[in-house]
Amino acid sequence: MFYFRYGLAQALSDRSSQRSEPPAVRLNDLDERIVHALAEDARRSYADIGSLP
User: Fold this and answer.
1) Of 15 and 45, more confident
2) How many whole angstroms from its chain centre is CA 30?
3) What's this model's pTM, rounded to 2 decimal places?
4) Of the chain's two ends, which shows fewer C-beta atoms within 10 Å, N or C?
């Protein structure tokens, strides 16, 4: 019975640790260009905010 409980606890532990990790995402070229454009736009916006009196 101990082995069954340990195995069940281990399985549940493994399952919960898998949930906490986000799935790997691979960007295609278009997605990558969009992400870079958004990041550049955000940098400009923060620079504009920083230059306000």
Assistant:
1) 45
2) 19
3) 0.43
4) C
